[in-house]
Amino acid sequence: MTNDVLPSLQVNLAALKQNYHGLTQRCHGQVAAVVKADAYGLGLGQVSKALWAAGCRTFFVAYTREGAALRRHCPDADIFVFAPYVEEEAAELLRHQLKPCLYSVSGCKAFSQASASHGGTASVALHVETGINRLGLSEQDLHQVLENYSEALSVELVMSHLACADDTQSERNPMQLERFQGIRALLPDVPASLANSGGVFLGDDYHFDIVRPGIALYGCDPHYGDVDAPRVDCVATLSSKVVQIKSVNAGEGVGYGASVVLDSKKRLGVVIGGYADGVVRLLGEPDSDAFLVNVGQRKSSLVGRISMDSCTIDLSGEGFEQVSVGQTVQFFGPDAPLEVVARHARTIPYEILTHVGARVTREYSQ
Question: Are 128 and 162 within 8 A, CB to CB?
């Protein structure tokens, strides 16, 4: 099967840069970029180099190996690692000049010892707990770190993470802000960071010195459409092609489990692209509202369950007579926002993007 009928993910790097510039205009401090998970599935190399060209100089990844990969693309960047396993990765962090976000007393101890053995102090961030109860130093932990390890560590950033930033009305946002302000008072001269994508849009009080957007860079409003106008541009489009068209009689089942039995004769199109490519299986479940894909200027509903490699769409009715094999079908993109797709799949846009499989070709436009 030729590549031109296989699923592809089109990545608009110009829109990515525009989203970055839009965030820099909104924030009074530095705008970093979160590029973990292969830049949310869009491709670490192309995305990071485009963001560097747009003026981004600070990046965040989840794992040490992601930071090492990013260093090859952006050799002069400041790279912070959210979740390093310092006890085993200290040498690797130092080798690639990565800055761990230290979240435990034992990690601070291990990294201070490793940096001392390399003949100096090493740059780190201290990740403090304010209410998400995930990774993070408690206030008691922070006191212990400052008392015992501060001389061996060059603390470049104190940070925390908002639990409910996607909900503008959540009372937990101001609660975490107050806690973070209190903890920051222990390190008044150290730059601070609290806001993720959702936090950026909560207001200036949440910005501090560095904000860390992820999903907003990649084209999704972090508040999932609870504002009147889009604040970010679409970056990613997942599409494929119709490879077969067939006429199926009433009473016939479609797809695995025959979850849909046709009540009338239908013209159906088979599209290459299934859950191994990022077309989430729940989109085709019979107990959900019919999900609509874009076929040219019209919308067609999925029929039956999503397979690993293909799915079926309804090409019956007025306007679909001219649709033939080779027609492009868009699963998400400018006409099918990630927020809408995620709602149908009972998940969040982050999962939709990161589930686009490795076999899907990434195509980049400037």
Answer: no
